[in-house]
Design goal:
The complex is a heterodimer of chains A (113) and B (114). By secondary structure, chain A is mainly beta. Chain A has no helices and 11 strands. In chain A, strands 2, 4, 5, 9, 10 and 11 form a 6-stranded mixed beta sheet that branches. In chain A, strands 1-3-8-7-6 form a 5-stranded antiparallel beta sheet, with no helix packed on it. In chain A, a hairpin with a 2-residue loop joins strand 9 and strand 10. The termini of chain B are far apart. Classes of the chains: A mainly beta (113), B mainly beta (114).
Chain lengths: 113, 114
C-alpha cells in the first residue's frame, strides 16, 4: 500500500518555464510534507517543506502548495533552470512523535536549455 | 543543516558476506535513521537508532539481518548481514534538523551484491 504517490515518473520542461511536480497521499495523519532533490550518486537534498496546517510555502523559485481536502501537494519551480534537472522526491512525516518519512518513487525532471 | 558522511561510498560484495556501513555527523543528534533505496524504488525506512537504547525496526526489517549500533550522539553503523543480491541498494543515514521536521541525509552507500 503506497501511501505517497508520484504518478509522473518523468517531466521535461524548457528553461525559463514553470515546472510543476505533483504528489498524492492517502494517510490523513501525515503532519508535514517535504520535497527533496537528488542528483545521481548523492544523497537527497532537502528543498522545501510545508506543514499540514498551511496551504502554501514559498522559498525563492520554489513554491509548495498543499490541498489537504484532495490529499494533494505540488512543487512549482519558476523559472526552471538546467541545474534543476534531478529526481524530485515527495515525502510525508508520520505525525506527532513519529519522525518516519514516507517517500514517493520520485519524478525525474529534465530542464532543457 | 548537519554535515553527514558515510563510509564506504560504494562496495561490491559476495553473497553470504556482511558489510558494515558507518555514518558520522558533525554535531550531536538524538535520532538517526537508516533508509534503503532499492533500484527504481523510493526510500524506505529500515530503523531508527537512538543513542542509549535499542534500535527500532520497521515492519519487514529485523535486527539479525540489519544490526545497528549507536555508541554516541554523532555516530552510527548499519550492518547488512548474510547478503544476497536482493540487498543491492543504496543505504542512507539521516538525522532530524533542529526544527524537528526536516531530515538531512548522508551521501549514501551504494551496495552491489554478486
Amino acid at each position: 500500500d503506497q501511501q505517497v504517490k508520484q504518478n509522473s515518473p518523468s517531466l521535461s520542461v524548457q528553461e525559463g518555464r514553470i515546472s510543476i511536480l505533483n504528489c498524492d497521499y492517502t494517510n490523513s495523519m501525515f503532519d508535514y510534507f517535504l520535497w527533496y532533490k537528488k542528483y545521481p550518486a548523492e544523497g537527497p537534498t532537502f528543498l522545501i517543506s510545508i506543514s499540514s496546517i498551511k496551504d502554501k510555502n514559498e522559498d525563492g523559485r520554489f513554491t509548495v502548495f498543499l490541498n489537504k481536502s484532495a490529499k494533494h501537494l505540488s512543487l512549482h519551480i519558476v523559472p526552471s533552470q538546467p541545474g534543476d534537472s534531478a529526481v524530485y522526491f515527495c515525502a510525508a512525516r508520520g505525525g506527532g512523535s513519529n519522525y518516519k518519512l514516507t517517500f514517493g518513487k520520485g519524478t525525474l525532471l529534465t530542464v532543457n536549455p | 543543516s548537519a554535515v553527514i558522511s558515510q563510509k564506504p561510498s560504494r562496495d561490491i560484495c559476495q553473497r553470504g558476506t556482511s558489510l558494515t556501513i558507518q555514518c558520522q555527523v558533525d554535531s550531536q543528534v538524538t535520532m538517526m535513521f537508516w533508509y534503503r533505496q532499492q533500484p527504481g524504488q523510493s526510500l524506505t525506512l529500515i530503523a531508527t537508532a537512538n543513542q542509549g537504547s535499542e534500535a527500532t525496526y520497521e515492519s519487514g526489517f529485523v535486527i539479525d539481518k540489519f544490526p545497528i549500533s549507536r555508541p554516541n550522539l554523532t555516530f552510527s553503523t548499519l550492518t547488512v548481514s548474510n547478503m544476497s543480491p536482493e540487498d543491492s541498494s543504496i543505504y542512507l543515514c539521516s538525522v532530524v534538523g533542529t526544527s524537528g521536521y526536516e531530515q538531512y541525509f548522508g551521501p549514501g552507500t551504494r551496495l552491489t551484491v554478486t
